[in-house]
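Lab meeting, action items carried over

1. Structure of the two-component assembly. Owner: GW. Status: complete.
Input record:
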Amino acid sequence: MKISGYLYDPGSSARSEAKLARRGNRFFLTSPALSSEREVEIGLVADRLAKIPQSVTFGNGQRFIPRYPLPEEFLHLETARAVRWIDWLERATLVKTVVLLAFLAASVVALRQAVPFAADGAAALIPAEMERAVGKQAFREFDAIVLEPSQLSIERRERMVSTANELARIGDIDPVPAIEFRHAPLIGPNAFAFPGGPILVTDELVEVLEGDATVVAVIAHEMGHVEKRHGLRQALRVGGILLIATLVFGDDGSMLEELSTIAGSLVNLQYSRDFERDADSFAADILIASGRSSEDLATALQTLAQECGKPCSKESGWLSTHPVMADRISALQDR
Amino acid sequence: MSVSAQFGAASTRRRGWVCARWGLLEIDAELQPASIPQNLDAPDKESVRFEFTGTGGEYFGIWLANLVLSILTVGIFSAWAKVRRRRYFLGNTKVLGDGFEYHATGIMILKGRLVALAVFAAYFGVGLLDAAIQAVFAIVGIFILPWAINRSNKFNARMTSWRNVRFDWNGTYWGVAKVTLLWPVLAFISLGILLPFSARASREYTIRCHSLGRAPFSAAIPVSQAYGALGKTFLFGGVPLALAPFAIFLGDHFLTFIQKNEETILYAVLLVSIALPICFQMFMRNVAINAMSLGNMARFRSDIHVLRFLWIVVSNLVVTVFSFLLLYPWAAVRSYRYQASCIAVVPLVDDTGLVDAEIGKVGAVGEEYTEFADAGFQL
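Predicted assembly:
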């Protein structure tokens, strides 16, 4: 068995056509440039991979690059058996593909369960003071760039804050997160919970909701996010997914990177919907415990859904950070 | 030249194309006879296109097996997976009948990753203790970046060979700092007016720092062509973007318009912001590769068709998403094959004179650092 290819001097592109032959465990090189056959000592052989020709480096530093992958007879040259096994696994057949895909699907399912578990475990290790420091800093930056001073009367704001504080006491939230009212034309009617507080309420939200009771109900919902550390846990979950994606896909071109970001944000949305439900139920608990009604939050959601119009009433909540409004409202009314 | 003949017909389809991808290095260019010395100007039939001989089906098997092995080993195997993927793509990229070899080993990549991981863990760990110290770390990091890019490019170049001769990278700290930090800042401050200068500087630098053995690559990109690339990019889809600043004069009406069409505008901006950089990069690739030569041995051409490439990128993305990633290997091969076929080499002398400059060891640390920092140095 002879295989043909090119023989190169060390570090040079100067080459001559040559043939590599095997007899027993000895290897011989023949070439038009050589007068006679010459025995060679095999040094390094490139790993098998698809149809890539495997270069062979000889003991004297010369290299032989065959035209084709080495035939079966030469395969024992390779040092690592693992490489041959990987190469076998890479040569797709229907059965192998099905098995590998099934494993892939199973790991996706397993990871979806494991990531929240691990992320919540990590969250428990992070001190509350650190979370609060991060939340305060984020709010300060957000405030400087996007927000304007509130135009609501001081009395009204103080009234709502004192009601909110009462709810916080009942909900056993310690320390009580600060409530910040801001005029935010760029954001519109909305409320945000920064990790560990503060809670931001836009003037626009207060205007749309009209009654203070509904605003307080929304604040109760945001308190749920703060108390249950949703911001931090969410960040850790997304971080975990991205870490896994980086480890698994690593450097596989730019497109896969973008795709893993898309996949990451879809998972992100799923988790955030779970957190919204969680915050709803927390709000309902403290509203009822304080002698108010979870209807207040339902009314607030209803008003916001009407204000928001088409996108909020869509049947599919898959791409929405918040679960379908109708589901949330009926869940609150059932309390 | 015997090898040229087989490619003659294919390469006349469109004049002047050379786009190459060697490791992190991506080289691009468009033939402009005025800018090329007379003795380098060979007729078209002499040009030989790069060729990619891999297939989607073959790569599917490699991709899937390595993905599963990476998951099973909690990511550790992905260092070896990277080597196999790179070997597959480079080995199947044929120039004048011979493919490229990639010599890095999984262990080298893994070591680099561990060091990079340690650096980043230290960075975030410090951030948890004191934000001020972390800021100092970040500033130090910026100063380390040019060094890391040099390491990375050196590693990738030295680990890649063609016809037994390894590529090399000879960048300097200040040279890299200039094209990766200084020029982009100038381009930004000038609101993009100096962008073609910045793009030209980085491409010229990347090309000139590479060599194949002792034979250096060179390129002198005419400024006018770099501005031409930017001009064509704007013609392609940037007209609305160029008009956008004037919309401010509409005042309040502008704000209401934005609020009413929020979603449409968001999608349009997203699409344009992805497509325009690709357009500019591809136009610049044509310009750069057409200005590129290898010693006095070869000249290069690139004739990537920007609209066609955009179509490939967009349709690949759609196919990949709707097949739940399963068709990703086909998409990757399709895009790579097109890009390879857009580069051609014009051999001017026999290549037997290529000699390796040095046979030295280069660590993978820099390469992984830049990957983690997402600072891949690409043309």
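2. GW to write a short summary for the group page. Key points so far: Chain A touches chain B at residues 8-15, 46-47, 49-53, 55, 63, 65, 86, 89-92, 96-97, 100-101, 103-104, 107, 130, 244, 247-253, 255-256, 258-259, 262, 311 (CB under 8 Å). Residues 313-319 of chain A have pLDDT under 50 and may be disordered.
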